[in-house]
UniProtKB/TrEMBL annotation:
Top-rank taxon: Bacteria
Keywords: DNA recombination, DNA-binding
Coiled-coil portions: none
Signal sequence residues: none
Example GO molecular function: DNA binding
Protein name (Swiss-Prot/TrEMBL): Site-specific integrase
Domain Tyr recombinase: 147-272
GO biological processes: DNA integration; DNA recombination
Ranges where the Core-binding (CB) domain occurs: 28-109
Species of the source: Enteractinococcus helveticum
Length: 272
């Protein structure tokens, strides 16, 4: 980031001077644009993986079009999405790519930054917004997945859980290793289903996240689940929520109680 900040300062100095020229102006300005955009996103609190993914998409667009950002037009985006990304079928992915390009262009043309002035001085041209209402995917539906994907039926879910439980019994009765891990995995499947958790939310759970519910005292500490690592939005912190166990899933309680009170401590490796 310090390197990109130095490039931006150099470009500003060059823009203010009529006697200085850059050795490789196109590559220098493009790299400084990417670096400045990365700094802005880090300042917003976005994750490094998100920023890196966005950068790669912009570089792909530049390589595909053979043009620099100050030369892009709406047709370049349309050709890119329908050309190199023709393999992308999901509307959600197309909309994500449009949003990334739109965000990058918005950064370049923002009057709080100097890119318009720098580009006009260096190239006699300047960036414009190339993602417009008539050439981008609108977010009109809450779910944009393929119709080929369907949820499991109740019979299929029951078969999954029965298979997981049978694996525990098989390993325990055979004396082979893995019964504890199989019991853990069985409870992971059931917990995800009973509380509607995402993968990361599920992976980050701890026994301290088991909570009481005054309206379901008979379940004790297994009446609710405190989710600490909910999906973040807009560079914010992970969102928290508490999910109450509903009566239809009361079958989850005995299995989790067995795991927490009888099996979990057996994973203790002892003195290493």
């Amino acid at each position: 980031m310090q390197h990109s900040d130095g490039l931006i300062r150099t470009l500003r100095a060059v823009t203010g001077s009529s006697n200085v020229a850059l050795a490789t102006p196109e590559a220098t300005v493009f790299e400084a644009m990417l670096g400045g955009w990365e700094s802005q996103q880090h300042s917003r609190g976005l994750r490094s993986t998100t920023i890196a993914t966005r950068r790669r998409l912009i570089v792909r667009l530049q390589e595909f079009s053979g043009k620099m950002p100050w030369e892009w037009n709406a047709g370049d985006v349309e050709d890119f999405i329908s050309g190199v990304d023709r393999r992308v079928i999901a509307l959600s992915t197309m909309r994500h790519n449009h949003n990334v390009i739109k965000t990058f262009c918005s950064y370049l043309i923002d009057p709080n930054y100097d890119w318009v002035e720098i580009c006009e001085h260096q190239f006699g041209n300047h960036p414009v917004q190339v993602c417009l209402p008539w050439n981008t995917v609108a977010h009109k539906a809450q779910y944009e997945g393929s119709g080929k994907r369907r949820p499991l039926t109740f019979d299929e879910v029951e078969t999954l859980f029965d298979t997981a439980d049978a694996k525990v019994e098989e390993l325990a009765s055979s004396g082979k290793k893995g019964a504890l891990a199989a019991l853990r995995d069985s409870q992971i499947f059931k917990t995800a289903y009973a509380f509607g958790l995402r993968r990361n939310e599920l992976a980050q759970l701890d026994v301290a996240d088991l909570h009481y519910n005054s309206e379901a005292k008979h379940w004790g500490r297994y009446a609710a689940m405190h989710v600490r690592w909910g999906k973040a939005a807009g560079g914010g912190a992970p969102r928290r929520r508490t999910v109450l166990l509903v009566p239809e899933f009361d079958w989850w309680v005995p299995g989790m109680r067995q795991w927490v009170e009888q099996a979990r401590d057996r994973f203790d490796p002892g003195d290493l």
